[in-house]
Specification:
Layout (H helix, E strand, L loop, with lengths): L8 E11 L2 E12 L2 E7 L5 H8 L7 E6 L2 E2 L5 H6 L2 E4 L11 H7 L8 H18 L14 H14 L4 E5 L7 H16 L3 E5 L3 H7 L2 E6 L2 E7 L5 H9 L15 E12 L5 E12 L1 E6 L6 H8 L7 E6 L8 E4 L3 H5 L6 H7 L4 H4 E2 L2 E2 L1 H14 L16 H14 L4 E5 L7 H16 L3 E5 L3 H7 L2 E6 L2 E3 L13
Parallel strand pairs: 3-8, 3-9, 6-7, 7-8, 13-19, 13-20, 15-18, 18-19
Antiparallel strand pairs: 1-2, 1-4, 4-5, 9-10, 11-12, 11-14, 16-17, 20-21
Helix pairs in contact: 3-4, 3-5, 4-5, 11-13, 11-14, 14-15
Bound molecules: adenosine-5'-triphosphate.
């Protein structure tokens, strides 16, 4: 039996969290034990993030308590929770890119001046943890030069340096390559065996079954079940999550064909003026989905932005149907929080913002408000965007539901060229299968689709043809996937 088991118990007792009329959590009770990896599952908007935020003190519940070893934790006080050893590893990293590894590690400890000797002293516990886990990082490397997987390691090391007893990971595998996922799971098991409480939010059932000791499923704010790994399979979990079984989508071959986008010798600079895309040529025909795979950070984003015309080309040429003419382009960017959404505006305004439906929704300089409302309502229903109303601020939607807003308005614009980057990141099984279906529909109607995805399952399920990117270049040998990657 792992040492420390039974020593620490994080217990949620009858927790309810209401936002206006919505119960994000409804009388939820659950126990997270030392020496276990506990996965929390649920559809988009089920309440997973809210539960994690309650556990880590970022959100105070409307009712109920959380206890660590029988002592109530300070509710809604993240800093206090950190002090007693509860650490949340967020999906959006909280690192300072221009600081070194050691400086970032030092910063996470008590605030104060960062003299060179203090940095070394404060970073030491995290660097020791790094050594123990086989995650050696160069302390003087700038964080902006680290690959995404390394940045995540740094986030975890920050938490361990603070002597975390409870580690909460919010969808930690979303940004990782298969090898990095295996390595993260190795470390999670090791931390579990050291007696820590490890909690994770996850969407991929296969991953959950691979790593979790126990699983808790939420649906619409309610706890549906907690079970041990051996008591469940993918089918049961899926049923618990959605209340029914989703039907698997089948990939039908493309029907419409025609000349589409042709890119010749594209070169694109990254944000730091580095050569992010180094001479790439490819073609994607109308009625075809071209998948571009590879580990994050190998120039995919810069290439996607260049094709979608939101980043300038340094060199090279793009033609559409053999001419210099521009296609009607739909773009689903990588980071919805930064590029996709105006967080201060409502759901409806965010649907409208991309301007895809300008002809029907405006009259001269005026907005046709009733039309807009009806149209927005239609998208909300079809894409099952979970929101109390279309007037709700977008910031109050769950992550997956925000992603649905971006995807739905883009697909609704009936693009001739569709550029999507990880279109289903953060979406649950049902939403993923719906979005895949809509992308195939667009393809079947003659759209040329360029799918950038770091998710191999998605890449193989959706694309008609595949290439991979490594260090700014295309490689078409699929066997090369395991060697793709590393630093920029
Ligand atoms: N700050 C907020 N204001 C209003 N409503 C909110 C707020 N935060 C969450 N909600 C609502 O609470 C519900 C649960 O959201 P939560 O983010 O916990 O879901 P989730 O399971 O993490 O979903 P996802 O998989 O999409 O990230 C959703 O209906 C969401 O709209």
């Amino acid at each position: 039996m792992p040492e420390g088991r039974g020593h620490h118990l994080l217990a949620v007792r009858n927790v309810t969290k209401r936002y206006g009329g919505v119960s994000a959590l409804d009388d939820v009770s659950a126990e997270f034990r030392a020496g276990e990896i506990h996965a929390v599952l649920g559809e988009n908007g089920a309440g997973k993030s809210t539960l994690m935020s309650v556990l880590s003190g970022f959100v105070a519940p409307s009712k109920g308590t959380v206890e660590l070893d029988g002592h109530p934790i300070p509710l809604g006080r993240a800093f206090e929770c950190k002090r007693i050893g509860i650490e949340m590893i967020h999906q959006h990293f909280t690192l300072v890119p221009d600081f070194t590894v050691a400086e970032n590690l030092a910063l996470s400890r008590l605030p104060g001046l960062l003299g060179a000797s203090h940095v070394a002293e404060r970073a030491a516990p995290s660097l020791e943890a790094a050594k123990r886990l086989g995650w050696e990082l160069d302390p003087i490397e700038k964080v902006r030069n680290l690959a995404v997987g390394e940045q995540q390691r740094l986030e975890i090391l920050k938490a361990l340096g603070g002597d975390a007893q409870v580690l909460i990971l919010d969808e930690p595998t979303a940004v990782l390559s298969p090898e990095e996922v295996d390595d993260l799971f190795r470390v999670m098991r090791r931390l579990r065996d050291e007696g820590k409480i490890v909690v994770l939010i996850a969407h991929k059932l296969a991953e959950v079954l691979a790593v979790a000791d126990r699983v808790t499923v939420l649906r619409r704010g309610k706890l549906i079940a907690t079970a041990t790994r051996d008591e469940v399979d993918e089918r049961t979990l899926a049923e618990w999550m959605v209340g029914e079984l989703p039907t698997a989508a089948v990939n039908s071959p493309a029907t419409v064909a025609g000349e589409g986008l042709k890119a010749s010798d594209l070169r694109v600079k990254g944000d730091r003026k580095e050569d992010a895309v180094r001479g790439i040529s490819f073609e994607v025909r109308r009625g075809e989905i071209l998948g571009i795979g590879g580990v994050d950070g190998n120039g995919q984003i810069e290439l996607a932005e260049a094709i979608a015309e939101v980043r300038a080309l340094a060199a090279g040429k793009v033609t559409w149907e053999g001419t210099e003419g521009k296609p009607r382009t739909g773009y689903v960017p990588q980071d919805r929080q930064i590029d996709g959404l105006a967080l201060g505006l409502s759901v409806e305004e965010n649907l409208l913002i991309a301007g895809y439906r300008r002809e029907t929704l405006t009259r001269g300089p005026f907005l046709r408000l009733k039309e807009i409302h009806r149209w927005a309502q239609g998208l909300i229903e079809r894409f099952e965007i979970r929101t109390p109303s279309s007037k709700e601020p977008i910031a109050s939607l769950s992550g997956g539901n925000q992603q649905k807003v971006v995807v739905s308005r883009t697909l609704d614009g009936e693009p001739e060229l569709l550029v999507v980057v990880n279109p289903t990141r953060g979406l649950d099984i049902r939403a993923t299968s719906y979005v895949h279906g809509k992308i195939r529909e667009a393809r079947d109607a003659g759209t040329a689709v360029v799918l950038f995805s770091t998710d191999l399952d998605e890449l193989y399920a959706l694309s008609d043809r595949r290439v991979f990117m490594s260090r700014g270049e295309l490689i078409d040998d699929e066997g090369a996937i395991s060697v793709v990657g590393g630093r920029r």
